[in-house]
Amino acid sequence: MLKRNFPQLLLVVLFVGAVRVTAQEALPDLIRQVKPSVVSVTTYDAKGESLISGSGFFVGPGQVMTNLHVVRGAQRADIKTLEGKGRSYPVIGVLAVDEEADLALLSINVPAERSRPVTTSTSLPEEGEKVFVIGNPLRLEGSVSDGIVSAIRDVPNLGKIIQVTVPISHGNSGSPLFNMKGQVVGIVTVKVTNGQNINLALASARFAEVPAVGLLSFADLAGRNRAPQRSEAIADLWYRNGLDSLWLGNYDSALTFFENAVNRNPRRAEAWVEVGFCKVKQGKHEEAIRAYRRALQLRPNSADAYNRLGDAYFDLGRFYDALESYQQAVRLHPNMAEAYYNLGMTYVELGDRTSAMAQSRKLELLDADLYKKLKSEMQR
What we know:
Elements: H1 2-34, E1 38-44, E2 50-60, E3 63-67, H2 68-71, E4 76-81, E5 88-98, E6 103-108, E7 119-120, E8 130-135, E9 143-155, E10 159-164, E11 176-179, E12 183-193, E13 196-203, E14 212-216, H3 218-223, H4 230-247, H5 251-264, H6 269-281, H7 285-298, H8 303-315, H9 319-332, H10 337-350, H11 353-364, H12 368-378
Parallel strand pairs: 7-12
Antiparallel strand pairs: 1-2, 1-4, 2-3, 3-6, 4-5, 5-6, 5-14, 8-9, 8-11, 9-10, 10-13, 11-12, 12-13
């Protein structure tokens, strides 16, 4: 028996070894392909002295995506490409800003042939999937590090947060997170807790939602939030601290911040949504429902709030209330894939396979991964 099985065993060993070699060879090839799309970002004060450095990547001709905190407070900035010896180009201004997501789209005075836009994937990587980052940690330009996806979290009003084992340092802010197809699946944002960096990236689906602002100079950018009312400023500080805690998955801490935010400014709808989300995480669904309804009183056209409200009802087994909420969500946002998935799952719970199948057909056109997930649930 041993003699007959040995050749087969040898073939298996050789095949596994070949797969490993191929995977090892693939990463250097990918790095060579995508590295020209990545840039370093350096900011300067009014005296021309450098402030902080970060990373970014081309998403279009003369357009670089980075973290907002990299350029906030600067008087000017430039980028440096990473191909060959690299070339520096001035930043003209800011084209789009997303405060909550910490994103800024920069306009660069660069020849078209020097812009090498990345390929972006809106599909989330799976836990355990291999990923890599190219950036400029501690001003070490073009540094490459790799690891795996260790977790994916959801943050209302923000999107999916990807936690990775890839080593991250200051200067990596704004770095692209690549999958093993060379596609950008997220943007790295450095978050610090207890003196240690937590390796996080915002999923790339958020990129398309960054609001355009025309072309802002750095002076205009600094003046956007100048002199807010004291109570609103304090409420905003609480709110942003809450978002930081959500990035890190600290729901109890986040709830404290968000409750302080709504106490200071009870008319901030998104803060009530976050309160509801944290309450769901604590298993306090009735309190969550009240928070979501408060958000909808302030912002009746919020598809996200209706979708979250549906989740709270679903967890309580109130499936008809959940259906009504999810239906409102897709009415307000006809391309909201997650709400169609939630509708399908609710119909599954109610034993209505025909209606669940109808939702799956709509979902197939919007999100292939969620479509497969719903079909799998329907077959159980």
